[in-house]
Design brief:
Layout (H helix, E strand, L loop, with lengths): L1 H10 L9 H4 L5 E4 L1 E3 L5 E3 L14 E9 L13 E18 L2 E16 L2 E14 L3 E4 L1 E4 L5 E4 L2 H16 L1
Antiparallel strand pairs: 1-5, 2-3, 4-5, 4-8, 5-6, 6-7, 7-10, 9-10
Amino acid sequence: MDQLRKFYRTVYDEFTSLNDQELLELNNEVDVYYRLCLDERTKINCREGERHGTGRMNHLVATNQTEDENARYAFGTRPAVMREKHFYGYVQYYCTHKFRDEVRMLMYIEYIKVEEHHGLVEQIANWVKQFADISVVLHQCALVEAFGKKKYIMDERDSIEERLRQFLIDVEG
């Protein structure tokens, strides 16, 4: 429930604290799902839906969200500068939750830290678990283990090509 309170605090500007009365009285009924069907061909699984002893189902996704570039500074000392950014993470589970008479489809996701090397995205470490609205999901990704136990994210073709173009511009410029 604390994670849900944090999610709604970031969604709604009027909440100044996690101790806001409306957040403290949050509906604790959550319906959990283990698979998300984006269309007839695209089904994204989750970590909780894996069966013990079976092959690993893919639950790594790319998301597009905004991030405050000044978040590392004390609140109020610098203005918020919001920029769109790609994030990657492992979906733990999907759920629906009703808040203010509106049902939201959410996912509990474990974001991962990544580094970009010559247009390739390397997984460095697991980072933080939190709720996110499923509307931020761009697509499913795959993880490939390379030489030296490094793990690279295989993204959609367009995303890979865009990173490579940007890398070439940076090298030439």
